[in-house]
Amino acid sequence: MGLETMDVRQIRLPRIPKREVQFLTPDEIQQYVAAIPLRNGPRLYDVDWLGFRVLVEVLLGTGARISEALSLKRSSINFQTGEATIIGKGNKERVLFFSPRALNWVKEYVTRRRDQGEALFVVGRRGKPLRLNAALTRFRRFRNMIHFPKPVTAHMLRHTVATTLLFNGCPIGHIKDILGHRSAAAKHSHTCWTTHQSTTWKHGSPNAAASETASCDPAAEH
């Protein structure tokens, strides 16, 4: 045909920029959770806002996806062991490990609720399960309400857990197990999780950022 063609070795594919993973520092976590308005008065909790605070604590204290957290029922959690069995991504069963701090917040929330709803996270007096869209909307509205500098989402909190564990020496394989990215030897992952809760949550973790200045007992705040 007489057509000139380019040597395929001269073709250069466009570079796709790497997406920077966003996460929160311990100070940013403290600022974020401290801004959640838990009370309507000196002795009266706003249960909906308390539920949002507990959702944030659970996401930070388990590394769960928001869909997994919202699937939790009151009866799902073993408060003695700090564990809950859930059906995660890909319809696979896995275990969530709760930090003691997250577990304390869950206990406080369940105790203060007056509804009979079975779901762990609910809205309204009748205890209707909190839906995903409503939870994501709450994150957006709260960020706009307090003019937070970073666009905090449930997924960013999950990145925060992973990044904190990585910075503190947890093997990547165990982090994947904790976050539910693969089927794991749960015993080893749990050891990594609990070790880092007890040693690094106090110094470099998002979930204990407030523990330097405030009690982990929700009832003691504000």
The run of helices and strands is HHHEEEHEEHHHH
What is the rounded Rg?
21 Å
The CATH topology name reads hpI Integrase, Chain A
Characterize the biggest β-sheet: 3 strands, antiparallel
CATH superfamily: Intergrase catalytic core
Overall structural class, as computed from helix and strand content, comes to mainly alpha
- Strand runs, count: 5
The figure for the number of domains is 1
Oligomer: single chain
What strand line-up does the widest sheet have?
A: 1-2-3
Characterize this entry briefly.
With 222 residues, this protein is mainly alpha-helical. It contains 8 helices and 5 strands; from the N terminus they run αααβββαββαααα.
Could you walk me through the main structural features you see in this protein, from its secondary elements to its overall organization?
With 222 residues, this protein is mainly alpha-helical. The protein has one domain (22-220): Intergrase catalytic core (hpI Integrase, Chain A), CATH 1.10.443. The chain is 42% helix and 7% strand. The protein has helices spanning 26-34, 47-62, 66-70, 100-112, 132-146, 154-167, 172-179, 186-199; strands at residues 77-78, 83-87, 93-97, 122-123, 128-129. A hairpin with a 4-residue loop joins β4 and β5. The chain is elongated and about 85 Å long. It starts with 25 loop residues before the first helix and ends in a 23-residue tail after the last helix.
